[in-house]
Amino acid sequence: MAMHCPQCLTEYRDGFTECADCRVPLSPGPAPKPADQGHKVDPVTVFETHDPFAFNLAKGTLEDAGIEFVIGGDNYEELGLSGITPAGALATRIQVAAARANEARELLEPLIHPEPIADEETS
Length: 123
Hints:
There is one protein chain. By secondary structure, the protein is of the alpha+beta class. It is built from three helices and six strands, in the order E-E-E-E-H-E-E-H-H. Strand 1 and strand 2 (11-12) form a beta hairpin. Helix 1 packs antiparallel against helix 2. It has two domains: 1-31, no CATH class; 43-114, Alpha-Beta Plaits.
């Protein structure tokens, strides 16, 4: 019969009675499968830009709404006024969980599809 260590979950073949590492008595049977430690999230890109100003607006908008996100692409902390890092001109992406993608896109709509400024507003 298989045995396993109740602390480190190492499996042993017949004849062993104590874990070589933990120095505790072995338990009968195979080791239990460890629980999934993380949570699985299907990330969806909701915003992509070269513009550091637009990126920071999008980031702040999602933070204010309590929507968790991850950042991909160029290292956004290195973006200068040009929107280009020393490594090149890759766009910075913001991704959220698929379940909140529509909500995030709705919040970011003014940044995704900005309206042009009318001539009278610039005078």
